Amino acid sequence: MAGFEMQRDKMERFKEELVKYIRYYNNDRIKLRLNGKSPV
């Protein structure tokens, strides 16, 4: 059972990091096409 809990914790951490990255990608990163401006 301990292995299952560890896997679940890893998956939760992965999902949290993925959401943060998607937010960064869509809102904060600099886009070359926009002449160095963020998309928002």
UniProtKB/TrEMBL annotation:
InterPro entries registered for this protein in UniProt: Integrase_cat-core
Organism of derivation: Butyricimonas virosa
Domain of life according to the entry: Bacteria
Lineage: Bacteria, Pseudomonadati, Bacteroidota, Bacteroidia, Bacteroidales
Protein name (record): Integrase catalytic domain-containing protein
One Pfam family it belongs to: rve_2
One example of a Gene Ontology biological process annotation: DNA integration
Domain Integrase catalytic residue range list: 10-40
